[in-house]
Amino acid sequence: MSATSLFTSLRERQLWFWAAAAVVAIYASLGQAAVLAEVLRARGLLEISFTVGFALVLVAVAVSGLSRRPGRREIWVALGIAAVYGMVVVRMGIGPAERTHLFEYGLVAVLTHQALQERRTNGRRVRAPAVLAVVTTALLGCIDEGIQWVLPSRVFDIRDMAFNCLAALMAVLASLALAWARRRVGTDG
After folding, report:
1. 40: burial class by Cβ within 10 Å (0-12, 13-18, 19+)?
2. pLDDT digits (tens, 9 = 90+) for 56-103
3. CA 153: distance to chain centroid?
4. Which of 76, 108, 118, 141 sees the fewest Cβ atoms within 10 Å?
5. For residue 16, how many other CB atoms are within 10 A of its CB?
6. What pTM did the predictor assign?
């Protein structure tokens, strides 16, 4: 990539593309989300749809934190992350609609964080990429709720904004924890 290019690498461009595609998909589904949820519920597919989405976020987090065959520490960290996600879902008693925030905005946060990390790795100044990814994702979640405020079939809910922030924070922290475990493998002897 040239010095005047918007992106520092092909990987960064791809990460931004996928992050933007995820946001577009979230926003595009706002008008039809209730209808889709009802169709899935009527066909008994709502829970399995959530499970698949949840698994996709865990895979995205794992892929972002693991670049090779994982060691024991990485496996334990990954299992801990899965347990934390599971406890959040079970203990918070949130319904399927709220659970979608965990994977939608978790995915956006991981992709954003990875794009910012790639940019930093390639010599551009990016302060606190993890914080920036969480804040950016939280703002995108606020825009989501703002759009819902004006849609007649949707409801503005401040709790959903909190779930969006929680999803971003959890996904980025999980990605950082996996990256930490990967770096520690070489120092454990």
Report:
1. middle
2. 766 766 666 555 667 788 778 878 887 887 777 777 766 666 667 778
3. 25
4. 76
5. 19
6. 0.78
